[in-house]
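hi!! sorry for the late reply, been swamped w classes. u asked for the two structures so here they r. pasted raw, havent cleaned anything up. first the sequence of the first protein and right below it the tokens
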Amino acid sequence: MIKYSFFWLAILVFNLNIHAQEFTPQVKAFIAIDTTNFAITNVTLIDGTGGKVKEGQTIVVSKGLIQDVGDALSVIIPKNSLIINGTGKTVIPGLVMLHEHLFYSKPFENWFSVGQMTFTFPRLYLAGGVTTMRTGGSIQPQTDLNVKKWIEEGKMTGPKMDVTGPFIEREGYDIAELGFIKGTAEVAKLVNYWADQGVTSFKVYNHITKEDLKVCIAEAHKRGLKVTGHLCSLTYEEASNIGIDNLEHGFMVSSDFIDDKIEEMCDPFKARKSLLNIAVNDPKMEELMDLLIKNNTTITTTPVVFEPYTGFEVVPGGGLSAMIPQLQEDLQNKYDRSINKDSTSIALFKKDLEWTKRFYEKGGKLVAGTDPTGAGRTVAGYANQRTIEILVEAGFSLPDAIKIGTLNGAEFLKRQKEIGSIEKGKKADLLLINGDLREDIHNIRKMEFVFKDGVGFDSQKLFESVQGKVGLN
């Protein structure tokens, strides 16, 4: 057995069987561990299943798969394995997050705009522990598909990706980067064209009609693909009854409680006001939750993008220094102007987390994501770690918070037999964290290695490589 030490890399290169996948020199620069056999010993384990935290565990990995996991005293480690001492450290599954983007908010004057972050965001997602992600809508779907392919080929650094097609939307929300359908007749063509290109899901947006959604769901489901939505013109109840698979942003964008709502009309201001006005324990919300559960509709919680200013970080998760200097200054100025002025945001933020937790406790299917848009404070990687922190701070148990961010996402993607939890036979998607999450959930930011298919990437090196670059590409 080879003991883990600060000079092990040179030993690995010359003495151990190298992992089968080929990587370019640009990707190899971030790989810390790439060997056929290794074991993490005497580590605290949160396995992603929602079960209790286990101490003194050993995880054995061979050829990218988890060969064994169990009590350190009983697990047999193969000869010539690299040994990583996990004493004082924690292992959780690689994050599986379902509302990610390869774009970022870049408003201009009074226009909301977004720009593609083709190279910085995939690297940041992996740095933050995301080993599998679904894009929650694309502005450049072909770019996203290319990135997915290049990551799989070892040419780029990033997570495994499920790509969602372009937003299915009608004009009414002025974002120049979106395409707009002129009528329902275009929906089937759009779904089938992008399904042929390789996307695995579709996202409907603010101004669609019921007929748009019906056609989108019918065409996607024919091909075994799923449909999610950031809704406004349609209520959660309407979309769930039509058969949508997934609703984004917790209950934050529900228009179900507008008293005088006009059918198929989007009024986000009335929707927000209605959510502020209803009581946290309003029976109408309970009825909506019960309906969603009955219809098997999954909710994606994205608390980071709604995180208030007062009492919180400028960039949730601590990623301000990752931004280009101009954006750092702009975000700091926005933060300074808004602090102590966002009491309604705080109230709705807390209320939504209470609803989300209640939905989960009632048996609702809950997954997590970040949505790096909004006011520009949500940055890939940093936001993913922060998402787990928020769930724990909101009262979810630590095992449940990890499960929501890992196995639940894998189950939604129908990949739970391969990823999402730390179990024998599954792919070795593991996060080695220097600290105990039970003592302080913020220790999740102390990731050392992000293992994807058994290849260990240096988390901090990945983060450092894009400092001051987010906003460029």
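now the second protein. again sequence first, tokens right under
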Amino acid sequence: MRYTEWTKIAPVGKFLVIFLSLCSLAGCSTNPATGEQQFTALLPASQEASVGAQEHQKVEKAFGGFISGPVANYVADIGRRVAANTERSDVQYKFYVIDSPDVNAFAIPGGYIYVTRGLLALANTEADVAGVLGHEIAHITARHSAERASQGFLVGLGAAVLGAATGSSGVAQAANVGSDLLIKSYSRGQETQADELGVRYLTRAGYDPYAMASFLKSLDAQSKLDARIAGRDSQMPSYFSTHPVTAERVTQATAVAATYPKANYKVLRENHLVAVKGLIYGDSPDQGFVKNNTFYHPKIGFAFDIPSGYNVENTPSKVLAVSRDNGTVFMFDAVGDKSGRDPLSFLREVWLKNEPVDQPESITVNGMRAATAGFSGTVNGKPATIRVVAVEWQPGQFFRFQMAIPPNSPKQVVDGLKRTTYSLRRLSESEKNSLKPPHIALVPAKPGDTVASLGAQMAVPSFREEQFRVLNGLMGGEPLVTGRMYKIVSN
């Protein structure tokens, strides 16, 4: 390195020396769980409880509520047993089940641990759940959030010093992006460390140390199947991008488990199956759900049919359906309009006022006033015929269908979408009260039963045998065990 190059970065070197001096005086401490020195000055352990309490309110608001009752008690009991074996007695752990079909779990400072309903459905043993909780507890004992926050601050501060030294604001901006990513995701090292500590905690609680690796395999299998169902290639699991499941991570978790002495560890498969029996599978009734190719929303009180062969994504703001065969897409949502317009005026003057609509017309959908129009457009850069329908659900509120139909689509495709539009209807009170969403049921494997025969009982629209295998952890082509109970999705 030439002398002139060294002088350009010397101020940053001085900054690092100052930082290391501060760390040695007050900012760093030895973590009792990891035995490592950490810089966590920006989130002291004494403040974690208050920070966690504030963030917990945000979590509840973002996810729309938690499940109570036996399932929540089951998770909390496992969590308390695992948490009793950690190095941090100063933390009061609290466990919550989020009412979400996503397969997920996460932790925030102060001992707040969250798992989703979807994750509990995927797990096959109590040890699986203990492994997940152990991993999340480990993020707290290892103080990874505090470490991320403090290091993220230093990245930004270091960038400011570097920017001043070089006279470049671009350096600081680039580093601040990195700082933001650091705050939002765990590093590979932190994930591996949480796996190692999680195995330690679940083993101390008497659970099978190999449960961590086995559930990681289930997560990976679920992710790949989700990608196949959606018609895309993906290696990213739904267990958040902050929890990447890789072959290396499974191998490492298995290697850690092998370091523990052989003993009569608990797996408790039957305990878990009993706990999740009857658990809602898929979307919550409060958000609407698909059953037998019909979308029901008991809370609002409507339903409409969905043509077969569509993948459906239900969010709080819309329902999106994409054909698995021909690229046809339709979206359903609701909007308000306080002007008192009729559907045709709403369509012309508000919704499509900047579009060259083709012959808009008034129609009626099951006694409700409506309007429809079509025009040429593009979807993902490809030409398509766009057909829209606005249905007056109640004064000041319209339900909307938006359909993108590829050119030269067969008549049955167009007719299917038309039937969907005209199937929108109000639910009677008796229907709303009688509707039950798909749920987890248990069936015994009888002599002669196969994965294919039990998979055929799955109340899912596609990939029934594959979904049965993943749901029951049968990823290696294992046969059924006669007399053993298996999970299926039932109506």
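hope this helps!! also noticed smth abt the second:
Residues 1-22, 38-42, 150-184, 233-242 have pLDDT under 50 and may be disordered.
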